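Hi R.,

Here's the chain you asked about this morning:
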Amino acid sequence: MASLWGAVVGDALGVPVEFRGRAELTAAPVTGMQGFGTHDQPPGTWSDDTSLSLCTVESLLHCNEVDTRDMAERFHRWLVEAHWTARGQVFDIGIATRQALARFSEGRKPELCGGRQEYDNGNGSLMRMLPVSLWVRDAGIEQGLPFVHRVSRITHGHPRTQMVCGFYSLLVWALLDGANPLEALTEAWRQAEEEYKFHEDFEMNWPHLHRLSPKVLPMLGVQEIRSGGYSIHTLEASAWCLLRGKDFSSTVLSAVNLGDDTDTTACVTGGLAGLCYDLEQVPEIWIKALARREDLDTLFSKFIKRLTEAPQEDS
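And here is the predicted structure, written out as tokens:
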């Protein structure tokens, strides 16, 4: 539950300063929930990151399995009907996601909608992968990772970003098992190397993940961390913030204050940080400020209840 709330909180903290540079945020850092700014939205407004995650949760609950067509239909409904938006308005959408949903509306199979070119490696599938990672956790790596890859391909089909989503899920699973951030990174790296390094679909892209190694990432300074919309950079930045954080608030605020794609970096970081810290560590004042808080609470409660009712091996 802390991870679900943590992701939304991180997203909402980042929305008002999206696209601001690191130097500007270093001079005037974000210290709490604020509003307006980049997208002229009130405090507590979350972006497409959360909207598409909520559509994913809703789909898993409705279908009781990973159904990529149902997910894609809900994503399209978000785009054209503002379904699961914070305030009835779609104000932010990535180019790759828009193009993929256009292909879906034209009749393409959902798992063939995501682009597969070099420039299609944005973070638009990573940002919504938390619910899927939680859902397929008990399926094991051999069954769980292919589900993660399939869900990524709805909007982002390049093997590199599929692999990023898989690495993220391995990190989530290690944290759920009680590992601390460095232990989780070490375990995720070991498992990802086994799964991807010599896999015919991924081996050519495996070297791109080299900075996620537990021998490399902890040694990087802030000036070496990039926080734009590239999926690898988002995962590196989020894991780096997690490694350096002392509590939930400092971890997520450090992600926001890296600048650039602030909402997604903080959303991914917030989800991971929520797995490390109790829900009590997520500031109540931030949760209370969120748009549609009661709707979020209802959906999250249903989702957690479903997750704890029985393992999801048959997804």
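One quick note: The CA atoms of residues 136 and 144 lie 5 Å apart.

Cheers,
M.
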